[in-house]
Amino acid sequence: MAATFDVIVVGVGGMGSAACYELARRGLRVLGLEQFELVHSRGSSHGQTRIIRTAYAEGPEYVPLVQRAFEKWYDLEQFTGRHLLTECACLNVGPPDSEHVRGVRRSVQQHRLTAEELSGSAINRRFPAFRFPADWQGVLEQAAGFLFVEECVRAQIHAAVAWGAEIHAHEPVQRWHVLGSGVEVTTERGTYQAAQLVVTAGAWATRLLADLGVPLRVMRQVLLWFDVRSQAAQFRRDRFPIFLADVADGPYYGLPAIDRCGIKVARHYNAPEWDSPDQVDWTTTADDERPIRQFLDRFLPGVGPQTQAQVCMYTLTPDRHFVIDQHPAYPPVWVACGFSGHGFKFAPMVGEILAEGVAQGRFSSDMRFFSVRRFA
Ligand SMILES: Cc1cc2nc3c(=O)[nH]c(=O)nc-3n(C[C@H](O)[C@H](O)[C@H](O)COP(=O)(O)OP(=O)(O)OC[C@H]3O[C@@H](n4cnc5c(N)ncnc54)[C@H](O)[C@@H]3O)c2cc1C
Fold it and tell me: What is the pTM assigned to this prediction?
């Protein structure tokens, strides 16, 4: 006989682990199914750190969600006794016509956030490692930081299990279907039934949610670390900010040096888009370093050789905004996907939103911004 749960969560990565925790905390009988080991480096939630920032260039709609996410990350730190979030200033910088900087300013104005305007030359004086053109413009905010991404996923799983969730690693879901008023999920090991299903499958949503009506695409992204030991103090997190630089072939972003691997720098977007995660090449080559080295030579000269590299995946929607919704064709099914390279900071909020949806049969706030139907 099939084992029965209140809710099954498919994919226990960044969002799925948050959903398992929030659902279990509400007293629901939860089964989380993960195809790989728990906390792995073959999806989208690995690579040591993730930026969290409040003055959100991607849209002022996100600001209240980030503000609440900060609180929820701190709650999770208290609950699990793990250090997850480190505060650090965040600099958004670009040429005078930068769309990114304009977006940051929109969020600052609409939500009356505290931020400091700086010219390129003022940035170079304040943070001597940078060489931005004098007429560039920057917005520096203190309400930002970085999350230890693997530790966050681990903490969410730990908290979910503490609240009674059952989580299975190495159990890929082969298919799911709606059965009566509930769902049935089939894996290599067996069949499970539940009243409701949450699909948080990251890049594999391209397969598990193929009929959702959202044209999801997968993008390979490379994270690189660079040695800064010859001038280590300049790149310490009390002296060097997280940065997002709106450069013509970018944007590029980076984080201060927090260990011997040095500063982490990467290019955001600007890579081929694929239909499925199976097409992603997980090896790195000298071609991956070339554009980043050019960026460093121009704006951060003096950074040493590459120390480490990792490949990771973005799952993109056409408008680069998330999908968090009830499946339009199957009411017992809830989906969260297409986080488009900026979702991790929101994971506890995504978990909360999904759990409220499952528990109440509807979302408690207006979720049109993240709806599936916007692609109809
Ligand atoms: C290089 C890089 C840098 C980023 N930087 C930032 C940042 O600074 N700030 C930020 O907020 N966001 C950032 N992001 C985005 C953020 O990391 C992602 O939006 C987030 O991690 C997505 O989480 P997810 O749960 O959707 O995917 P994942 O964490 O990949 O989880 C999906 C899980 O589902 C599992 N799964 C899939 N199919 C099945 C199946 N059939 N059966 C069982 N399990 C299955 C997978 O194995 C995986 O564990 C970055 C992403 C990358 C790649």
Answer: 0.98
